[in-house]
Structures are given as structure tokens and as C-alpha cells.
């Protein structure tokens, strides 16, 4: 059904070969009208929930609007953006977000592939393992971040207890979250714990559509398991991998909850989303906060462009 | 009024005293055994006690909620039928039932149609919602419960209460009234208050040879170090002192206490001068930095109120800075610290102008400028913040009143002995955060202050350099306000 609708001439019918019969054919016009009517609800929804807020954010980012204030807003040009890039807090929030996104997504991808390969092989209890794997993903982030905060505690946390008193790997308890050199890695570790199962599951779906006979053929040809992984599994997994990467990078780039629960808006771990919220809601600088949100939007747009280019290359 | 007071037998008295929380669980068991009661009877008393304490949020009371409310004389009755919607306690708060009862009695006395509207649980969320409603000049709510740091933010939306309620304002603590006064207008009427306090383990002080709690920060450091050194042999998690070091509003409260107690000023003085960059303030921050990793855990830089209490309540800390609410938690029936906790003023510094300091907290009632029922809303505020209602709120809900005479009331002294003893803290020492002078930019000022303070505490910045940055940012903010 949906295939047929999609193949009908859609609004942009300026394709040369079809434009020939366009003026004369009332039937084509009727179909065109029908197509417009069918896409209208989606266009409307997108306009209301996505385009309008985006346009509003962009407009506000050029004003000195204040949240909860009755004084009229004034157009201030690029002032908010200039201020943003002169603000050390914004700059560090920017770098923390980049470091968080790159490292958490990289680690999650590698671990995700490994786990997907394991649960794709045949062993008894596979169903149970696959289900239990999803538990970290199923716990709300606010809850699991609070649990990890307790576990990282210097005096009473289970992690120091394990590393210092049970295993003897380090000599004295570390204040994982308080210490500026360990706080961001500690938070990345929580995100990896939580999101690797999601990654593994997406990649498992990709693995399951690779037909078994290509491996049989490779084995007959004498390819080692290692060669099979690099020459067969990875290339065939690429579409699923790209989708997973897009999901995760976009998600990681707007990270808020895991950092906010563990560290609030502390300067050594603040992310762009926390910065935007603090500016907009706590400080009531709606205009400046909107400028920060627009920067997040632009960064995500760049990520999407890069990934969609990669997907296109893949299609060709 | 006390349904168990009448029984004269020893068993009756044990039940009565047990239920009203006058006895610890251990004492109930001891006396019960002495009276020859069976274990199951003693257990019944114990479980009845926990039920009561739980149901009453730490204030055991057998009577119906609102039993102590006396409707004040002289309320207007000519406003019958007017509607007043008041945003008060959060929906799930134990205060809600008392407030709803108070509203019912108000409606019966005046004929006004007041109703309870729940506020947000977290203060930041509450402020965001208020800003949204008041920024849109919404007439939906008439009365708002506002935090002590919001008068500057709310002034543009508030009705001046001075013309109508000057007599009531004269009964309130002057420092809190001043904090609520913006450009001569009384933005909010004080309702209940809060102040930073020093909690200490009286049993441990005695055990290690200290006969009274510390007067100065130096004394606190010495005591904390001695006690920590000796206690940590048996309990590796034991710490001398815990406070609130996370980068949030709580650290602004702690920091203000450190610098003000050391003669280091109020960050921004009431006349708008930024004074944070001074040697005494810097010295007080350096002192606090010295606690981190020695008498306080390194992660104290991520602590808020509940995490400090998490260290203190199970017996893992000798001293704690916290608000009055923490007392009832440490004295709950199943707490290991029943009878072992003392509360006093926070220590003072050594420099010139050193004094005891406690940051002022608490809540006020504000009438929205956009309310169509101004007179009825003002009458409601007059009722809720009257000495009669504050007394009942204190007795039943353990809030600290904002009217001096309520502390001296015999009923209050009898039932809330701990709060009654706090009168000097509220009357004299409580120091307000610079929220009124910074107007609607207070949160920006506070964020600049606690962000850098957190960096000092965690060793990411030197005190002198960080204070210079605080000063620069605060001056920016003040110039934006036209100073």
C-alpha cells in the first residue's frame, strides 16, 4: 500500500519526462492534489512540533528575552553568540560534550559488536542472556545514575571497596566523581554500561540478516575466522552499524541526565545541554540559552550530514 | 487535647510517652521489661510508635491534623464568595493536609472561597513554573509560596503588601522583612524560616574529652581531626565534618556562612557594592579547601543536603552543617543517633569582624499583581502568616516561625523544644543571601559564586584567582542592573 502511494507523483513533479503530459492531464492533477492531501497531516505535524520551535529558538537567540519577565524583548544581533564564544564555561561544555560523544560512542560500538557476535552464536541459554542484557537499558537513567553515584562514593562506595580492599589494585580509595581528572571518564563509563546493550541489540539485528552460506563458502575457500570477520561480517554489517552510530551520536551529543544527576552543573563535567538549561531556566536568559541550543542544533545537523553522506556512499 | 495523657497507670504512661516520641525505642523496651510486659506487648507499643511518627512526619501527635489551629480575630467577612487560589506545598508533602485544614477554617470564618493548589517539589522547578505563569500575567493563581531568595525575581509580579499588612509585618523578624522589601515594596509576607546549623555528636565529643561544641572554625578543625583519627581505626568511612560542596545553591549558602563568619562580608552588600574579593573571604575559602580530603571526604565537593545527612545519620561523621529539618531524621525511632546529637550555631572565624553566621532560608507568601481578587488574597496571606497560624504550623509541622513571640509560647516550647531553642539564630545571626539587591539576576550571581567556589574546593583553582573571577562576573551582573 504505502509503496504505491510513495511511487505516485509527489509534489515535486518537475521531472522532465512527466512534465510533458502534466498540463493536459486532469488525472495527473487530481493525483497530485490527492498526494498533497495525504502528506498534509505529516507536514502539519512536523511544522508544529519541529519547525515552529526551531524557528522560535533561532529568533529568540537574536534577542535579549528573559524567561518570566514582562519587559519587552529587544533585537541584539549576534551579541548572544559572541558572548557564548567568549564564555569559558560554554567552551568547556562544548569540549566535554565532544569528548563524551566520541569516547562513549566508540567504546559502545566496539563492545556492542563483540557482544552481538557472542549472542549471535549458538549456545544454550542464549534467550536468557539476550533478555538480561537489556536490563541496564531498561532502568531509567535518573535511577541508574543515582545508583552509580552511590557506587562511586569515596568512603562507602562498592567500587572503591572492590578495588582497594578486595582486589588490592589501588592503594587508597579514589573520589571518582569529585576528582576532576576522573569525573568525566567515570560518567562515560556509566553511559557505556547503560547503552552498550542497545548498541549490541541493533547490531545483532544486522548480523542476523547475513546469510550463513557466505561463511560456508568462505570456509571452503580456506578463509580464517579472522578474515571472515573483516571481509564478510564487517562489510555486511555496515548498514546496521551506520544506523546505530547515527542514533547513538545524536543521543550522546545532547547528554543531560547522567551528568546532571551525578555532578549537577559542576564545571569539570558540564555538557552543552546542561549549560543551555542553566542559562535559560535558572538564569532566565532565554535569548542566550536559545543561542546555546541553536549551536547544539547546528552541531547535530553537521553530524547528520556526515552520516547521511556515509549512508549514501553505502547505497551506491 | 492529648488523648493518651489521661492514663495514670505506669503502663498507660509508657504507652503515652512512647507514642508522643518522648522515649527512645530502647527506653520503651527497658521500662516495658521492668513492668513485666510480654515481648509482644512491647512490640505493639514500638510499632504503634513508628506508625505515629511516620504518619506525622516526625511529630507524633494523636489528634486530627489542624487540631491546634485557632482562627484569628478580626478577619474581614465582607469578601464572601471571592475566589482565592493559593500555590502552597507540593502535592505529596506532609504539610498539605494541615494547609488544607487551615484553608477550610479560613473559608468557614470569612465566606471567601480559598483553595489549595500544589506547588512543585523542587524549588528550581517551582521557580520555572512561576516564571512561566507570571511572565504570561496569568490570573489563575492569586497567592504564591516563594523562597527567601526570590523577592528580587518576583518583585515585578507582586502586590505591595505594606499598605494593607504593615501591622503584621511589624510582628515579623525585621531581617526577613527587609529581605522581602524591594524598592520599598513588601513583596512577600514571611511564613516560616530556616537557617544553617552545626550538628554534632554529643556522645563522641564527650568520649574524646571535649566538654562543649566548637565556638570557632579552628576548634572545629581540632575536634574533627582528633575524633576522626581515633574513630577511623574502627570505622574506615568515619569523617570529621560534612557539608554541602556541590556546585549548586546549597554551596552558596555554605560559602556565605564561611566568609561572613570570618568578617568577609555578604558577597554583594545591600547597597550593590561587590565585596567578595577581600582577604578575609579568601582566607575562609582557603580554610574550607583545607578540609576537603582531610577532615571531610574528597567527594564532599559533590555533596548536597541529603548526601551530607547520608554520612551523618548512620554515624559516619562527627560534625555536619545542615538545615533544621535534619534533626528529626537523626531522632527518628530507628535512628542509631537518638539522644546523641547536639545542635548549635555554626562556628565563627578568627579575623576582624568575625561572628557566628547562619544563612537565612525559608518561605513567604506573595500576592500576584494579576490576581483579580486582591483584597481576598491579601486577607488570606494575613490569616496564614498570623501568629495563631504560625504557632499551629510550628507545633504540628515543625516549621520555624518568623514571629518572635511564637518562640516564647509555652505550647511551642513544650512540643518543639528543639525549635524554640533556635530563636537566637533567627533573631540575630541569620544572614541573607544577596538576592534582593541582585533583583531578577540573583540566580546568575549565585551560579557565578558557587561554580568558582566548587573549583576552589576541588583544587581546580586557587582561591585568590577564583575570587577575582567571581568579582568580575558579579560586577558584570551589577552593571547590567544599572549599578
In short:
Chain A has 316 residues and is mainly α. Helices cover 73% and strands 0% of the residues of chain A.
Helix percent of chain B reads 40-55%
Characterize the quaternary organization of these chains. heterodimer
Helix content of chain A: over 70%
CATH class of the largest domain in chain B: Alpha Beta
Unreliable stretches of chain A (pLDDT < 50, length at least 5) are 1-10
Shape of chain B: globular
Number of helices of chain A: 15
CATH topology of the largest domain in chain B: D-Maltodextrin-Binding Protein, domain 2
What does the model show?
With 316 residues, chain A is mainly α. Chain A is built from 15 helices and no strands. Chain A has 2 domains: 2-60, no CATH class; 88-315, MetI-like fold. Chain A has helices at residues 2-7, 16-19, 26-60, 79-85, 88-120, 126-133, 135-138, 141-152, 158-166, 183-208, 212-220, 225-253, 257-263, 272-282, 286-315. The longest helix of chain A has 35 residues, at 26-60. Chain A is flat. Chain B folds into 3 domains: 10-55, no CATH class; 83-190 and 361-424, Periplasmic binding protein-like II (D-Maltodextrin-Binding Protein, domain 2); 199-359 and 434-480, Periplasmic binding protein-like II (D-Maltodextrin-Binding Protein, domain 2), CATH 3.40.190.10. The longest helix of chain B has 18 residues, at 463-480. Chain B has helices at residues 10-19, 25-34, 39-55, 95-110, 123-135, 151-154, 162-171, 174-179, 202-207, 217-231, 249-261, 279-291, 305-312, 325-330, 374-384, 387-397, 404-407, 410-415, 417-420, 423-429, 442-457, 463-480, and strands spanning 83-90, 113-119, 143-147, 181-182, 185-186, 189-195, 197-201, 239-242, 317-322, 341-344, 358-367, 400-401, 430-431. Chain B contains 22 helices and 13 strands. The termini of chain B are far apart. With 483 residues, chain B is an alpha/beta fold. Chain B is globular, with a radius of gyration of 24 Å. In chain B, α2 (25-34) runs antiparallel to α3 (39-55), α11 crosses α12 and α21 (442-457) runs antiparallel to α22. The model of chain B is unreliable at 1-12, 38-42 and 47-61 (pLDDT under 50). The interface between A and B is medium-sized, with 30 and 36 residues.
Amino acid at each position: 500500500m504505502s509503496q504505491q502511494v510513495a511511487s505516485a507523483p509527489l509534489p515535486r513533479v518537475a521531472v522532465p519526462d512527466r512534465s510533458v503530459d502534466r498540463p493536459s492531464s486532469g488525472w495527473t492533477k487530481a493525483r497530485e492534489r490527492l498526494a498533497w492531501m495525504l502528506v498534509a497531516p505529516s507536514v502539519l505535524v512536523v511544522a508544529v512540533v519541529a519547525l515552529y520551535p526551531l524557528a522560535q529558538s533561532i529568533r529568540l537567540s537574536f534577542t535579549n528575552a528573559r524567561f518570566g519577565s514582562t519587559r519587552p524583548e529587544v533585537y541584539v544581533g549576534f551579541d548572544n553568540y559572541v558572548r557564548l564564544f567568549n564564555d569559558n564555561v560554554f567552551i568547556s561544555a562544548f569540549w566535554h560534550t565532544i569528548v563524551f560523544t566520541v569516547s562513549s560512542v566508540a567504546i559502545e560500538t566496539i563492545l556492542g559488536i563483540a557482544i552481538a557476535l557472542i549472542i549471535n552464536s549458538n549456545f544454550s541459554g542464549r534467550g536468557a542472556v539476550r533478555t538480561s542484557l537489556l536490563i541496564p537499558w531498561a532502568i531509567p537513567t535518573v535511577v541508574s545514575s543515582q545508583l552509580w553515584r552511590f557506587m562511586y562514593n569515596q568512603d562507602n562506595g562498592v567500587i572503591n571497596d572492590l578495588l582497594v580492599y578486595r582486589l588490592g589494585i589501588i592503594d587508597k580509595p579514589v573520589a571518582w566523581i569529585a576528582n576532576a581528572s576522573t569525573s568525566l571518564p567515570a560518567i562515560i563509563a556509566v553511559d557505556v554500561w547503560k547503552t552498550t546493550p542497545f548498541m549490541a541489540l541493533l547490531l545483532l539485528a544486522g548480523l542476523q540478516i547475513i546469510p550463513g552460506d557466505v561463511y560456508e563458502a568462505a570456509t571452503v575457500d580456506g578463509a580464517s575466522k579472522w578474515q571472515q570477520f573483516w571481509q564478510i561480517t564487517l562489510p555486511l554489517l555496515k548498514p546496521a552499524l551506520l544506523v546505530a552510530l547515527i542514533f547513538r551520536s545524536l543521543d550522546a551529543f545532547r547528554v543531560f541526565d547522567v551528568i546532571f544527576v551525578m555532578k549537577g552543573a559542576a564545571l569539570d563535567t558540564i555538557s552543552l545541554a546542561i549549560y543551555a538549561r542553566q542559562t535559560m531556566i535558572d538564569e532566565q536568559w532565554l535569548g542566550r540559552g536559545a543561542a546555546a541550543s541553536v549551536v547544539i542544533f547546528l552541531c547535530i545537523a553537521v553530524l547528520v550530514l556526515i552520516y547521511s553522506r556515509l549512508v549514501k556512499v553505502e547505497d551506491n | 487535647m492529648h488523648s493518651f495523657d489521661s492514663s495514670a497507670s505506669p503502663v498507660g504512661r509508657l504507652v503515652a510517652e512512647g507514642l508522643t516520641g518522648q522515649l527512645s525505642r530502647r527506653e520503651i523496651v527497658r521500662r516495658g521489661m521492668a513492668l513485666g510486659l510480654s515481648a509482644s506487648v512491647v512490640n505493639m507499643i514500638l510499632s504503634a510508635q513508628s506508625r505515629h511518627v511516620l504518619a506525622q512526619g516526625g511529630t507524633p501527635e494523636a489528634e486530627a491534623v489542624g487540631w491546634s489551629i485557632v482562627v484569628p480575630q478580626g478577619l474581614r467577612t465582607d469578601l464572601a464568595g471571592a475566589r482565592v487560589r493559593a500555590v502552597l506545598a507540593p502535592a505529596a508533602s506532609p504539610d498539605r493536609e494541615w494547609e488544607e485544614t487551615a484553608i477550610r477554617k479560613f473559608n468557614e470564618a470569612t465566606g471567601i472561597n480559598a483553595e489549595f493548589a500544589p506547588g512543585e517539589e523542587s524549588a528550581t522547578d517551582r521557580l520555572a513554573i512561576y516564571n512561566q505563569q507570571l511572565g504570561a500575567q496569568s490570573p489563575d493563581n492569586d497567592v504564591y509560596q516563594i523562597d527567601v531568595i526570590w523577592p528580587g525575581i518576583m518583585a515585578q509580579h507582586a502586590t505591595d503588601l505594606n499598605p494593607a499588612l504593615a501591622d503584621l509585618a511589624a510582628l515579623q523578624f525585621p531581617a526577613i522583612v527587609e529581605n522581602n522589601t524591594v524598592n520599598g515594596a513588601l513583596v512577600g509576607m514571611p511564613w516560616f524560616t530556616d537557617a544553617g546549623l552545626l550538628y554534632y555528636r554529643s556522645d563522641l565529643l564527650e568520649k574524646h574529652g571535649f566538654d562543649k561544641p566548637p565556638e570557632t572554625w579552628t576548634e572545629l578543625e581540632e575536634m574533627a581531626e582528633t575524633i576522626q583519627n581515633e574513630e577511623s581505626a574502627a570505622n574506615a568511612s568515619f569523617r570529621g565534618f560534612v557539608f554541602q560542596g556541590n556546585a549548586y545553591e546549597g554551596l552558596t549558602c555554605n560559602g556565605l556562612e564561611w566568609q561572613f563568619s570570618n568578617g568577609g562580608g555578604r558577597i554583594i552588600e545591600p547597597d550593590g557594592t561587590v565585596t567578595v574579593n577581600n582577604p578575609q573571604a579568601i582566607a575562609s575559602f582557603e580554610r574550607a579547601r583545607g578540609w576537603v580530603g582531610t577532615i571531610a571526604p574528597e567527594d564532599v565537593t559533590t555533596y548536597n543536603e541529603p548526601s551530607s545527612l547520608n554520612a551523618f545519620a548512620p554515624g559516619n561523621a562527627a560534625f555536619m552543617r545542615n538545615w533544621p529539618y535534619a534533626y528529626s531524621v537523626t531522632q527518628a525511632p530507628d535512628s542509631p543517633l537518638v539522644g546523641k546529637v547536639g545542635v548549635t550555631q555554626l562556628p565563627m572565624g578568627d579575623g576582624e569582624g568575625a561572628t557566628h553566621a547562619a544563612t537565612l532560608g525559608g518561605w513567604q507568601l506573595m500576592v500576584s499583581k494579576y490576581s483579580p481578587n486582591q483584597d481576598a488574597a491579601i486577607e488570606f496571606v494575613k490569616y496564614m502568616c498570623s501568629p495563631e497560624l504560625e504557632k499551629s504550623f510550628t507545633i504540628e509541622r515543625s516549621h520555624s516561625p518568623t514571629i518572635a513571640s511564637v518562640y516564647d509560647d509555652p505550647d511551642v516550647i513544650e512540643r518543639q523544644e528543639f525549635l524554640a531553642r533556635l530563636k537566637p539564630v533567627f533573631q540575630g545571626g541569620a544572614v541573607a543571601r544577596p538576592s534582593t539587591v541582585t533583583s531578577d539576576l540573583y540566580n546568575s550571581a549565585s551560579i557565578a559564586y558557587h561554580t568558582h567556589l566548587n573549583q576552589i574546593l576541588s583544587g581546580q583553582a586557587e582561591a585568590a584567582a577564583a575570587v577575582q573571577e567571581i568579582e568580575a562576573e558579579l560586577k558584570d551582573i551589577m552593571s547590567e542592573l544599572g549599578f
